[in-house]
Structure formats: structure tokens, C-alpha cells
Backbone:
């Protein structure tokens, strides 16, 4: 058997905040059909919400111990400190893992992560099966890389130089520049003309021919994502990005914090308040779990700008019943304004 066949394939799933990465990976886990999978989740914020969403699958092919969270910073900035130990832990699992999915934070640049697969400590054990970029189709159809960038638009209107220095646009462009496959999500929220606009934007932005597929609610045959067999690390130096000439980079353009939310009686009212936090306070992304009066199951809440979705995902465990929301926004996001919009000091 060749050394390449002995390597465990890894699929890197990248994409902007709220594009649908976790939903896509959760669907892959539920459709694993016995294939032994593991996941490395890179959170942006102090609470492991995405890891909890994936653990809610309850799939024997990917038990809880196969899901590893990295919350000490963006994975592309902490590869040596966090990623390699996480990979070591997964590769030591028994029974052996057959495929690893790596969900980056919405701000991560995939190229430094792919380059790490050349390191002597891991290059003989793993390979990049492919880089999958997840893109919000509804936002792209409207000319944005994410659903709600009104705060950024206001800054751009005041300073034309921001057209070139916009870090969000650069992150998006760097992500798709490294992609072997692009998944266009939220297709159910756009009409045919909108879908064609989104596809045209991608065609104009992709630096080379890359397959683009559409998905609704993360429903995509795992065979489309897993088994690409690209070995991306061998070609990564040919994928040019904005940060190729930088020795280091940071993500100081964003703030995140965790808000404790009391038990709610009316989930729809909570959704309205979260939408208000986006419109009035500039929250770009809100995600977490909330306790609802009279309901034994936890309510999973996810919001991209003012667009809020919610679903009951599983029963609360012993001692777990406590609402927490992670809020992410541009640098200077006013926590007090978000709390006022959410009404966290009063019963919702």
C-alpha cells in the first residue's frame, strides 16, 4: 500500500460567518452510513456552540469524543499551538477514524492551514482531500458576501479607500481562492434570477475553474464533499491570496462576547429581539441555545444579521439548562446596545 493511501483524508470547510458550514457538516454526520468520521471545530468566541450543534446529531459514526473544539483563536493563526495537538488526539482514537472534517471559523484563511499539512509532524499521516468553501447564496445574490453588512456599508460610504481595504471582502476572496469545491447555500431563499446573479459573482471571483454546487439547509450528498482526492497541499502555493506577502495577520476587525439569556416564554419574541440587535446594534452573527418555558428540549438559535432561524435540537442534560448566545460583530460592537435590544434584563 502506498503512503498516500495510508494517509487519513481531511476536508477543510471554510466560509464566512453564517454561511452554513455547521449545518452542512451536521448533515454529513447524519448521513455517514457507518463511515467513521471526526470533526475539528474552530470557534470564534468563548462558548463552543458549533461543537454542541454537531454533538446534537447523536450519530454513532461520529461520537462526542470524535468532535474536538478549538476556541483559543482563529485556526489559521494558531496552527502550531492548537491544530496539531487536536490532530494527534484524533489520529490516536480507536477505532481508527476514516475521514476528518475541519470547520474553520468564519474569519479563518484556509491557506496557512493547508500549508501546515507539509509539516514533518503530520505530512506522513494526513492529506487535504479538498477545501470546501461555503458561500451564502442569498447574500451573494444581493451583492454581499454575508447577509447584513450595513455597518460596513456606512463606513465605506464615508471613505472610498475602504473599497480596497475591506477585511471582510479579503477574507471571502482568500477563502474561495483556495477552494476545490464551492457550496452555494440558502438556495431556497432566492429566485432563479437571484441564483444566476450569485453564480455570476462566483464565476467572476474564482481564480480558476472550480465546481459550484447548491444546497438547501445543508442537505447535500456526503459523496459530493468527501472523497475529492485533491491533495490540496501539493498545489497550495499556486493559489494566490491577499495575505501571501504578509508575515502574519490578525482579526482585530471583529469583536465577540457571550450573553447569558434567561428562560423565555415566547421564542418568536426572542427572534424579533435578535433581529433588532442586528439592525440597531450591528450584530453580524448570533448563535446559541435558549431554554423555553415548559419545553424539555433546548432551542437552537442562529442568526445572520436580522435573519433568525430556530429549532429544538435535543433535550437538555442534567445541569445544562441555561441560555447562552454568542454575538459577533465588527470591532467596537456595543455590548450594552446588544443587551438592550435583546432585553436580557427582563423576561422575554
Residues:
Amino acid at each position: 500500500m502506498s503512503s498516500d493511501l495510508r494517509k487519513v483524508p481531511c476536508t477543510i470547510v471554510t466560509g464566512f460567518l453564517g454561511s452554513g458550514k455547521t449545518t452542512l457538516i451536521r448533515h454529513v454526520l447524519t448521513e455517514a452510513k457507518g463511515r467513521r468520521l471526526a470533526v475539528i471545530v474552530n470557534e470564534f468566541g468563548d462558548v463552543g456552540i458549533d461543537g454542541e450543534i454537531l454533538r446534537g446529531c447523536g450519530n454513532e459514526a461520529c461520537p462526542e469524543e470524535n468532535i474536538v473544539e478549538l476556541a483559543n483563536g482563529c485556526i489559521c493563526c494558531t496552527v502550531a499551538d492548537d491544530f496539531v495537538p487536536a490532530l494527534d488526539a484524533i489520529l490516536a482514537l480507536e477505532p481508527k477514524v476514516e475521514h476528518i472534517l475541519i470547520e474553520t471559523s468564519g474569519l479563518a484563511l484556509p491557506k496557512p492551514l493547508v500549508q501546515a499539512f507539509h509539516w514533518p509532524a503530520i505530512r506522513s499521516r494526513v492529506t487535504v482531500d479538498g477545501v470546501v468553501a461555503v458561500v451564502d447564496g442569498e447574500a451573494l445574490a444581493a451583492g454581499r458576501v454575508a447577509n447584513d453588512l450595513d455597518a460596513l456599508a456606512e463606513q465605506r460610504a464615508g471613505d472610498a479607500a475602504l473599497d480596497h481595504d475591506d477585511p471582510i471582502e479579503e477574507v471571502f476572496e482568500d477563502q474561495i481562492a483556495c477552494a476545490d469545491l464551492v457550496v452555494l447555500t440558502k438556495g431556497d431563499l432566492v429566485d432563479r434570477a437571484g441564483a444566476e446573479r450569485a453564480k455570476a459573482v462566483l464565476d467572476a471571483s474564482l481564480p480558476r475553474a472550480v465546481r459550484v454546487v447548491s444546497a438547501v439547509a445543508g442537505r447535500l450528498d456526503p459523496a459530493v464533499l468527501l472523497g475529492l482526492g485533491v491533495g490540496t497541499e501539493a498545489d497550495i502555493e499556486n493559489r494566490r491570496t491577499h495575505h501571501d506577502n504578509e508575515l502574519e495577520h490578525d482579526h482585530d476587525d471583529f469583536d465577540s462576547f457571550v450573553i447569558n439569556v434567561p428562560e423565555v416564554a415566547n421564542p418568536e419574541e426572542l427572534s424579533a429581539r435578535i433581529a433588532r440587535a442586528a439592525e440597531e446594534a450591528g450584530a453580524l452573527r448570533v448563535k446559541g441555545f435558549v431554554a423555553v418555558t415548559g419545553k424539555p428540549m433546548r432551542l437552537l438559535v442562529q442568526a445572520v444579521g436580522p435573519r433568525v432561524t430556530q429549532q429544538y435540537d435535543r433535550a437538555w442534560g442534567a445541569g445544562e439548562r441555561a441560555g447562552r448566545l454568542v454575538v459577533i460583530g465588527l470591532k467596537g460592537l456595543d455590548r450594552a446596545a446588544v443587551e438592550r435590544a435583546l432585553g436580557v434584563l427582563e423576561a422575554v
About this structure: The chain has 13 helices and twelve strands. Residues 267-281 form the longest helix (15 residues). The two ends are 60 Å apart (CA to CA). The mean pLDDT is 78.
